[in-house]
Write a structure and sequence with these properties.
18 helices; homodimer; five-stranded parallel sheet
């Protein structure tokens, strides 16, 4: 990919200025069209060798278009800010809302490339990270966050001379950081590996554009043209169509299946319940206060049918955990800031730091449950969500987070009894509404969705625990036991 | 205040459990009423001496009410997370949206109390901090964030024995942190100063409730009752009335005044403009890269009449600053997350860390300009905003942030010319709409608002600079010069 960008093209200053007039007008018009009709966000990755023009490009870009709607980020390279969250957290939190443009001077490529060039990771691990990046970028694109990936390049034979010139000039010396010096040393020996990595991550929706950095005017002109082309192509796409209404599901899933196999008659008498719950709560409290947990964290996910006892289960887990280390995130309708970003953003923003616990009361599984059944998203969207969710949870687990997922079920008869009880108890009435009765009528559709979810996302790293919810005591003790086991095993 | 809480009241377990049933029902109903009709947020400050029951209260509270809608925070005491922002930033970012309840185990009282007890600050400084707290809490209350301030207390004569008992028990020893031991030592000598501080910050809208912590059941019962009373009183208030429509302003402000005194005929020829602008941009760029700026930050505020050249001025400042250290925050309609919090929250969340620059394109002055003139808020609201804004900017300056504020004016004739030019230039048409013409008709009302703003908020720490905007070159150079002076003087 580099050879085509080593032709040494030039553009004289006058020619550049002349072309720039028109380019700016087009870019500015496109930026305002996007702001007024915020269909997508644009994320520009500005990478490349020092001296090849990426810093100039970024600083000029914010003069070409309206800088008020462009954010530029250089990310803390040592990842201190993530404080125990997965490394990608740093980038997730920077994703712009639709309508806006963000430039990243360090991206999800920075660390893997440097790690590989400096031989801190092997070829296999590197390829896995590139594959994960491809999946991440596919998701971003599908969630209306388009990428412009620029690599500013100068031939390896010129690099040392150019970087030395930067370092000699005191107005530019600060740009060549220790990390960049390390990169240049390794790059000069192994530029072919970077080339291969760029090829491996040049996907149809997010190809790399290698910019010939020999001449600064040419480089900026080329980068500007790439931006213009991308904006034009994405703006020309029609608006998103509303998802089709799903066909009613009249058949129950074939039996036996994971749900039908549950024994909903299991019960626990009160004396044993009190004894076991207290013991398990004490064990959980103790585990979370242990020293090893200060380098770990816990994410507990609760999903379940209406009136299956999710709220009570969450409450009894919460009781065991010192409130200062616990956050409970109830998931309802997203805020407008959340709606303007990729789906998983609203969960990433709540991930726990080291030593903390986050309980999600409903979660990212909403996409493959309620959103699928109610037709809030297109079939293609919930189908791709399984892989996205698995990748997300893999990242959590790899960062040391313990992930425990619970699905609470309840038999139709017991659910009916609880609905009626809620309607007749004054202070429980707020817990029941027409929506619950409607959901109940869609039981088969929900059962299919739950079984698919279990089949697709019950992974060894983040397994599901099905909870028989007809007896609340039995359910709560089973949740606590599984949670205690998960935490104790991990520590 | 402590004597009344040293009577050693007791409540036996059975009596407590019996009362708790009813208390929980009432609290839960109140919590759900608040969630469904989110008129206010509740912030509970749980302070007190160790062993007096505050930890128990907080952990029990999350079992009494629905823990999914309660957040509990223990704040990093050394303030590392603030990274150069004012100390209060840690608490601002934790404020809940309306409808929710947040418990703070450390609050804006923690540091001043400890600093004073340990004689790290003098009496005068301490009193100033308490006065600032009173102003802050008045603002919170007026912005629908009500406070329940609890102080769990045991007599000084019992304190050492009780804390020693906590420390001996390995299940509670972790609760007594080094900061708390330091606090206990100082408190035993100077509890009367704490008492005076509580009295000084017991305001009508946010009084302290001292809880007798001799008996744990009594303490929890009292704290629960205090919460119940507060919720009931705040829920019984009627909904907020929409602000009255402001009367039209037909008279211009009396002359001469700060606006009429401006010489709008000042111009700058192109050659001098190019030379001066380049020189000033270079000086700003250099100042921001200097080492002392790594412990400082810059907030630049731009306000101005429509078409006065705000956008261009912002763009020319931005050109001078390395994009990786710059954030431009354009202020338009608030998001729903912002609307649910006190007014200034949306600005606190964008404050720069050390070494960074944030430009606010429109700002917190919106409250005393557009919101006043258009009647978006009640007169009482914009009137109190002056003092709130001055306090906010004082905090910024005290934290080492350089604050520069610009108001750009334009003569009616020049404004008209620019409006017409915008309408007739295809790629400027997006910059003008019916709203701009309406604002123009309200010129007198805006002039009054601007003059009041200058009179109330032109402080030595954060002065306003008025910019004559009829000649864009003159305006841009004046902005740059003032900004360079502000930064160079500060470093």
């Amino acid at each position: 990919m580099f050879a085509a960008a080593e032709r040494g093209h030039r553009l004289d200053k006058a020619g550049f200025e002349r072309r720039l007039q028109e380019l700016r007008r087009v870019l500015l018009a496109a930026q305002y069209r996007l702001l007024r009709d915020p269909r997508f966000a644009l994320v520009i990755l500005a990478h490349g060798e020092p001296s090849a023009g990426r810093t100039e490009f970024v600083n000029h870009l914010t003069t070409w278009i309206d800088p008020r709607h462009v954010a530029v980020h250089a990310v803390d390279p040592d990842g201190v800010t993530a404080a125990g969250r997965p490394p990608m957290w740093r980038f997730w939190t920077l994703l712009p809302p639709r309508g806006r443009i963000t430039v990243l001077l360090d991206s999800w490529y920075t660390e893997p490339l440097l790690d590989r060039l400096c031989r801190r990771i092997g070829r296999r691990a590197f390829e896995e990270r590139l594959a994960a990046i491809n999946a991440f970028e596919r998701m971003l694109d599908a969630d209306h966050h388009h990428l412009l990936k620029l690599w500013f390049h100068v031939p390896v034979r010129d690099l040392k001379r150019r970087v030395d010139a930067l370092r000699r000039d005191e107005t530019t010396a600060w740009r060549v950081t220790p990390e960049e010096r390390e990169f240049v040393r390794a790059f000069r020996k192994r530029s072919d590996e970077v080339e291969k990595a760029l090829a491996a991550t040049s996907t149809p929706q997010a190809p790399w554009r290698v910019i010939d950095g020999h001449d600064k005017h040419w480089a900026q002109w080329q980068a500007g043209q790439a931006l213009r082309t991308l904006l034009a192509s994405r703006l020309s796409r029609g608006p998103e169509r509303p998802p089709p209404r799903p066909a009613p599901v009249r058949r129950p899933p074939a039996t036996p299946n994971a749900l039908s196999a549950l024994d909903l008659t299991a019960t626990l008498d009160e004396a044993r319940y009190n004894r076991e719950l207290a013991r398990l709560q004490a064990r959980l409290a103790e585990a979370i206060r242990r020293k090893p947990f200060r380098r770990r964290s816990l994410v507990a996910v609760f999903e379940g049918a209406d009136a299956a006892g999710k709220g009570g289960a969450v409450r009894h887990v919460a009781e065991a955990i010192d409130a200062r280390f616990l956050t409970i995130v109830p998931i309802a309708a997203p805020s407008d800031e959340e709606r303007a970003r990729p789906y998983l953003w609203r969960f990433w923003r709540h991930l726990p730091v080291h030593g903390h616990v986050t309980i999600f009361d409903r979660s990212w599984y909403g996409r493959v449950l309620v959103e699928r059944v109610e037709g809030f998203c297109a079939p293609a969207t919930w189908r791709r969500a399984y892989a996205e969710i698995n990748a997300f949870e893999d990242e959590l687990v790899a960062a040391g987070t313990i992930v425990a997922k619970f699905y609470l079920t309840v038999s139709p008869a017991e659910q009916l009894r609880r609905f009626r009880e809620r309607e007749s108890t004054p202070w429980k009435r707020f817990k029941i509404g027409p929506e619950d009765w409607r959901n109940r009528a869609k039981r088969h559709a929900y059962d299919h969705a739950v079984l698919d979810m279990l089949a697709e996302t019950d992974t060894p790293a983040a397994p599901w625990t099905l909870i028989e919810g007809d007896d609340k005591r039995f359910a709560r003790v089973k949740v606590m036991r599984r949670l205690v086991e998960a935490v104790e095993t991990a520590l």
